[in-house]
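Need the bound structure for zinc ion, inputs here:
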Amino acid sequence: MISSPARTFATSAKLIIAALFGAGLATGEALAQQAGPTPGSAKAIFGAVKLPSEGPPQSIGFYAKGCLAGAVALPTDGPTWQAMRLSRNRRWGRPEMISLLERLSRDAAKYDGWPGLLVGDISQPRGGPMFNGHASHQIGLDADVWLTPMPSHTMTAAERETLPFTTMLAKNKFLTIDDKVWTDSRARLLMQAASYPEVERIFVNPAIKKKMCDTWTGDRTNLGKLRPEYGHDSHFHIRIKCPVGSVGCTPQAPVAAGDGCDKTLAWWFTPEPWAKPTPKPGAKPPAKPREVMVSDLPKTCQAVLNAPAIASAKAATYGIKAAGAAGATDVEPVSGPATGNTPPSVIPQQ
Ligand SMILES: [Zn+2]
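Answer from helper R.:
Posting the output first, comments after.
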């Protein structure tokens, strides 16, 4: 989930959007302004699927161009987490991602003074591109976690839809943390998340990264995993590596050595990342990027779409046996054509 950089910086939204297109990771702020996904696009098709495919988990393709087979759901509630925005139906991921979130929630509660996680978007039931909010999150290995602690009560579905985001940034200042909001517990939470070997990157706002660089006095070995990005001022984004042996999952280059508190961070505090691209005189305006179609994704993704669905969201909820288990509040996801009745087809083992 991406909060609005336009709000954050009180700058022209257009200017920010122009910058975001270069960011790869980030956001569909521009697309969020349209009423719905273009019919027939990969976003429309993957966004309409309600349930994951049967079979073993497979992350297919790249974080920002791929899909997910055999996904499992984060239970909507656990002792130390609550899943947010349930209507979006994006609490699906690889089992490795879900178990990492649960582990982080327990460790943060035990060691970091953080009572529990509010978990935002992970992936759609079969991954793939999303209509709004993200360029990545397509293969079940990315998850957003709020920088707001879990409240002591179990929130209703309605509360989970409407709880506002809280930015860590000071209003009316450029890329500056609001010290009235920021806490050491947030710093500890981030470093706890970065401590796990399977976590490769954590995206945070550049101001948060700078705060960590300036104030973190503990072991800095994993500080380099915190990567400055647009947005990410009210949540952070955890990305894990392609799990060992997952054929078909395209890894990302490892992060550079060092803590990242260097000129790559300083760049974010220059005008360059926020400047509107200046077209060359006489040059044509850049063409609007073409919609991504299913055929643009790895071939296996069509088979993932065609594959039979698991019986129910509950049956595919991580750690919960299908028979009458508690804890998987079945919230009817946004409607769309079901794919559960499509003819069986074998997903090739890429
Ligand atoms: Zn994210």
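Comments: The pocket of zinc ion is lined by residues 134, 137, 142, 144, 237 (CB under 6 Å). The domain at 5-269+294-316 is CATH 3.30.1380.10 (Muramoyl-pentapeptide Carboxypeptidase; domain 2).
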